[in-house]
TrEMBL record:
This is Transport permease protein. InterPro entries: ABC2_TM, ABC2_TM_bact-type, ABC_2_transport, Nod_factor_ABC_transporter. GO terms for cellular component: ATP-binding cassette (ABC) transporter complex. Pfam families: ABC2_membrane. It comes from Streptomyces pini. The keyword Membrane applies. The lineage of its organism: Bacteria, Bacillati, Actinomycetota, Actinomycetes, Kitasatosporales. It is found in: Cell membrane; Membrane. It is a multi-pass membrane protein. The keyword Transmembrane applies. Residues 40-265 form the ABC transmembrane type-2 domain. One of its GO terms (biological process) is response to antibiotic.
Amino acid sequence: MSTENTGPGTYAPAPGAAPLPRMIAAQAALETRLLLRHGEQLLLTIVIPTLLLVLFSAVDIVDLAGEEGGGGGRVDFLAPGVLALAVLSTAFTGQAISTGFERRYGVLKRLAASPLPRWALMAAKTCAVLVTEVLQVVLLTSVALALGWSPHGSPLAVALLLVAGTAAFSGLGLLMAGTLRAEATLAAANLVFVLLLVGGGVVVPLEKFPEPVRAVLELLPISALSEGLREVLRDGAGMPWANLAVLGVWAVAGLAAAARFFRWE
């Protein structure tokens, strides 16, 4: 039996890596599916922010006297903060925990040996975070509008704040995941989430804190993001450059530290 080719290229496989954009897209799709299938992550990224928005909008748990906006009342204050919390939950807490356990179980080590470069793996994880955040924003915005929210301001300013916040929290999350043990990352990420929920201007106005404490809290990335979104969406202000600058500093510092100290094994 002849084994000669019956036509040009019939038996001419070309083994090798797929184009880099295709590899990043495939890895990003996989990361997104894994995230959306994870019940605990969905609780953190979807359920908790939604419940907080509905509960604090409907029940007078926190005194927001003087903080409510126009027609939507309490929800005008709460919606921007909950959007900031959604970014925190996905880009920082969720990413830190999942990446930390992938590092512990050797998943990152094996992926680092694949044709996909390490920086491209991090890019794919970032794309998965952004896709999840888009779903969060759509859901939370729909819920807030149903509760009477009346947003204002520039969509471009909102988008820039969300992207800057994502970069800042991603850098900090990867730094934590790449330097601490998985169990320590789990505990620390959840603790930080709770502390920033209370002290980051999400559901409790920063004006409720003593002045020296407030001065420190205003420098946190969650405070910069929540207050910046509030200035745009509630007050109709232009680009909040001061808040954007705070997020930019955190993003540069966090991503640089993660790139320097991240350990793959």
